[in-house]
Amino acid sequence: MSATVQREITPFRRFAADYASNKIAVVALIGVVIIVFLALFANLIAPQNPYDLAQLDIMDGRLPPGAKSPAGWTYWLGTDDQGRDMFSGILYGLRISLGVGFGSAATAGVIGSALGLIAAYAGGWVETAIMRLVDLQLSFPAILVALMILAFLGKGVMNVMLALVIVEWARYARTARAAALVERRREYVEAAECLALPQWRVLFRHILPNCMPPLIVIGAIQVASAILLEATLSFLGLGVPITEPSLGLLIANGYQYMLSGKYWISFYPGLALLVTIVCLNLVADQLRDVLNPRLQR
Amino acid sequence: MTVWIFRRLIQAVFVMLAMTVIVFVGVNVIGDPVEILISPDADQAERIRAIAALGLDKPLWEQYLRFLWGAVRGDLGRSFVFNEPALQLISQRMPATLELAVTAVLLAVVLGIPLGLLAGLYPHSLFGRLAMAGSILGFSLPSFWVGLMFIMIFAVQLGWLPSTGRGATVTVFGIPWSFLTRDGLAHMAMPAFNLALGNIALVLRLTRSGVRENMPMDYVRFARAKGLSPQRVVFVHVLKNIMIPVVTVLGLQFGSTVAFAVVTESVFAWPGMGKLIIDSINVLDRPVIVAYLMMIVLMFVTINLIVDLLYTVLDPRVRIGGAE
Amino acid sequence: MTDATLVVTNLQTHFQMRNGVVRAVDGVSFEVRRGKILGLVGESGSGKSVTGFSILGLVDPPGGIVGGSIKFLGRELVGMAEPELRGLRGNRIAMVFQDPMMTLNPVLRIDTQMIETVRAHADVSHAEARTRSRDALGLVGIPSPDERLSSYPHQFSGGMRQRGAIAIALLHQPDLIVADEPTTALDVTIQAQILSEVQKLAANFGTALIWITHDLSVVAGLADDIAVMYAGRIVESGSVESVLDRPLHPYTHGLIGSVPSRNKRGSKLRQIPGMTPSMLGLPPGCAFRQRCERASEECKVSPPITHPAPERTLRCFHPQLELAA
Ligand SMILES: Nc1ncnc2c1ncn2[C@@H]1O[C@H](COP(=O)(O)OP(=O)(O)O)[C@@H](O)[C@H]1O
Ligand code: SF4
Ligand SMILES: [Mg+2]
Q1: Residue range B281-293, pLDDT digits in tens
Q2: Among C297, C299, C306, residue to substitute to test ligand 2 (most atoms within 8 Å of Cβ)
């Protein structure tokens, strides 16, 4: 109480300090940044364009890690059956996995949050209808909902994206509604209503920003689970086309060579996937602890 | 109580109806029903005859009622690939999946609860920390990749376990079971453990947080003040309280485990209904897909119902107040 | 002193926290005689419960007894091996807790919780244990105890639950019962009933009783002796009559002044100014001095225990002899 504050403590600075209190979470955040960087600049970093069939030589297929390419550089992580450099394949695969993961999580976030806010604000049958749908959907596991949608629509990247969005919107909606119901009771909303501001403005300019912390936490978790689900669906052969493999498909491609001991084709993409998911989950964990101390574990 | 059960049953029927609507709309409105229900190699005259025979020229609501009527009688069409009733196909594959899923859930109980108890009683020990880190990993691991790594290590490198398939089975009540033979068990070890990983992590965490929540409670201290042995305090007093959330979550998780068996079965070529559904999606054998979906939805609704009932049996506080 | 059931000498129970040591009990001495009731009084946080738990050996890490002695019927409890201590708990020494809603296990039936207590210390059949449990329930005034045995705690009212807990404490007719604010959570009529019943039981069985409370008026009608606790220390003790009639410690004066019945109608209730100090890193000296009107330079060192009268103890440099009006 009596301690005088020397430096100005902005909310962000406090947030950063809180976040940094857990060293593992900091490492995980750095990991996420590096992974995103690798994915974004895959075309600059990778020694080879794994999707350009002209660059691939089937004679180089299934070389072990450390083998030399005809051009003289090293396949540090070996090659797959197409003669594709695994390291390059993983970088490009990361790009697809992250793109699908972030893209669908963000889309689902916008749609789900909007529906959740509308439910909280409209009340009545609108709220009942939206929340019943949320309950129904959340009572089934994500993989089943995704399979159902792919069964209706057929396979393909866009359909996987759509399936992910449909799988994920419900959790955002539930979170946004819960947060909005709390915020609505606060005075500032009443004040805004007294000023006769239009409803949508109250909703999106006043309530939404205050609902952001829990939505950010959910978002971080959802990105990780979207990436995992996409990899799983691609592994099952329901996702990305074989010519532009994501991490899940790279792993699937190595399956048949596993039995002859050529582990690297499946192993390294899986490791990349694992590290990505672990880092994202750790970041999400710490965000939850920092943004909402009451919601721990 | 009976009123409550009745109300809960009605609710379940409504969920089931909602799902039939969703599946019906999914295949008939989003997908093309002709393509779905009539084999692709049929010629034009055959198509028109089939459309009339299947009632696809009727209004949508009438088609839905037909579909519903068929579903109630267990008729969900014939598989294009196997030319067998779709429901029969699913039913034949179901025991293998259930066997795998039940084993996985049992593994989660047998491993997760003791590990969680230890981790909860000694949270600051090396074991407690390792268990926590391990459980985070358990949630983050891509399950299919772990399955591949199992195969690589235990089948390829060490040669201890067979890599794929179901192995020798024994037929009881007309259904083949793997768990009754040594070979069958050897085949089941890796897929069951693979499928159980996420559940083990979940049960471990639930048990651990349950222990940590319950140990400081007054009733535990009172039990100790009565002079009870630590074993009785932990295994009777604390465990009984923890079992309520654990059983509830595991029960609900059983459905997810069956759904997730799709992945495990694909990795280990386990001949269950998950493998069948993936193959069917790949060749667009939609009657089988519809049959699978209806079957698994029915299973989910039933499980939710059972878990709710079980919950009231386990928790005396709910048992009395449950009728509201 | 030969009939002393419990003799506590210079007991120290500390909690090793990350940011320092909490001296929850810091040099406490008292004794309880057979069939007598000691009222342990003090504000919340003064270390009363920790004292009680120390006697039963139920202080968990990061806490622990770091010094002193607890002699129960001549046997030293401090440092006693856990199995031996467990044989005493619930058997020769029983404890009743503050919140009856929390002390019984919500998912076990009353009979289960009673029978296990009987069989933990007596080699008797299940049926015999059940009979004893029923008798104990009857003893504490629970109607139709036979049927009540098969209930779950949530089917009991708060008062009934506390009677149940007291019945459990009585199962083995212990030599000592530590009752930690057992009536605080109950309403006044039930509180009065339980008090008079407990008083009778203690007298009949020759059980020594430590009655912990923050409410001086409870102790006034119940106890034989009184010990006033403040910040981990007993600041004043003696027989109930002598301490309440002639309080010496300023804190005791404050406590008496804040009891409603002692005030003239219409006069303002006197509150002790200030708050209970944080027990973390308490500075040396008398812990009451920030709130004490009589504090002087001298009070910056710990006041020693003095005996202003036979059978009385005091920790204060400037005892207050006149009664506060
Ligand atoms: N488990 C514990 N960990 C740390 N400090 C504790 C613990 N239990 C009690 N204390 C400390 O001991 C002091 C006395 O507590 P307690 O005996 O419960 O007080 P009372 O029963 O008189 O209200 C308090 O200041 C409290 O902070
Ligand atoms: S020792 Fe001093 S400060 Fe403490 S109570 Fe006595 S007079 Fe007050
Ligand atoms: Mg207390």
Answers
A1: 877 777 888 888 8
A2: C299
pLDDT attached to residue C39: 93
Q: Which residues of A touch B145 (CB under 8 A)?
A: 251, 266, 270, 273-274
Longest dimension (CA), chain C: 66
DSSP 8-state secondary structure symbol assigned to residue B313: H
The three-point CA angle C226-C227-C231 to 5° equals 155
Higher pLDDT, C262 or A208: A208
Tokens of A279: 């880092």
Shortest CB distance from B218 goes to which of C56, C88, C97? C97
In 10 A of CB C177, how many CB atoms? 24
- CB C240: neighbour CB atoms within 10 A? 18
Q: What is the pLDDT of residues C212-243, one digit of tens each?
A: 998 888 888 888 999 999 989 999 999 999 99
Q: Flag the least confident range among A243-247, A249-253, B43-47, C275-279.
A: C275-279
Rounded (5°) CA angle B249-B251-B254: 110
CA distance A231 to A33: 20
CA of C22 to the centre of ligand 1 (A): 8
Q: How far is the CA of C47 from the centre of ligand 2 (A)?
A: 19
Helix, strand, coil percent content, chain B, rounded in steps of 5: 75, 0, 20
Q: Ligand 1: does its nearest atom lie under 6 Å from the Cβ of C46?
A: yes
- From the list B251, B201, B94, B252, the residue with the least C-alpha distance to A141 is B252
Alpha-helix residue ranges (DSSP H) falling in chain C: 48-56, 82-88, 100-103, 110-121, 126-139, 145-148, 158-170, 188-205, 216-222, 240-245, 250-257
Other C-beta atoms within 10 Å of B236: how many? 19
DSSP secondary structure string for all residues of A57-83: -GGGTTPPTTEEPTTS-EETT-B-TT-
B320 CA: distance to closest CA in chain C (Å): 9
Backbone angles phi, psi at C55, to 5 degrees: -65, -40
> A111-141 pLDDT, tens per residue?
999 999 888 888 789 888 999 889 888 888 8
Worst-scoring range by mean pLDDT, A182-186, A280-284, B5-9, C139-143?
A: A182-186
C208 touches chain B (CB under 8 A): no
Residues at Cβ < 5 Å from ligand 3 ion = C 49
The closest CB to that of C103, out of B218, B241, B320, belongs to: B218
Cα of B130 to ligand 2 centre, how many Å?
A: 52
Question: How far is C264 from chain B, CA to nearest CA, in Å?
Answer: 40
Among the partner-chain residues A150, A228, A251, the one whose CB lies closest to the CB of B148 is A251
For residue A6, is pLDDT > 60?
no
Cis-peptide, bond into residue C62, ω within 30° of zero: yes
| CB of C163 closer than 8 Å to CB of C194 | yes
H/E element holding C209? strand C208-213
Q: Which residues in chain C land under pLDDT 70?
A: 1-2, 260-271, 276, 281, 323-325
pLDDT for residue C129: 93
User: Per residue in C59-74, pLDDT tens?
Assistant: 988 899 999 999 999 8
pLDDT of residue B130: 87
**CB atoms B316 and C106 under 8 Å:** yes
**Domains assigned to chain B:** 2-72 (no CATH), 90-314 (1.10.3720.10)
Q: Which atom of ligand 2 is nearest to the CA of C293?
A: 8
Q: Chain B contact for C195, CB < 8 A?
A: no
Domain boundaries, chain C: 4-82+91-97+177-182+206-314
Q: Which residues in chain A touch residue B284, judged by CB atoms under 8 angstroms apart?
A: 154
Contact B300 A152 (CB under 8 A): no
CA-nearest residue to C59 within chain B is B221
CATH of domain C4-82+91-97+177-182+206-314: 3.40.50.300
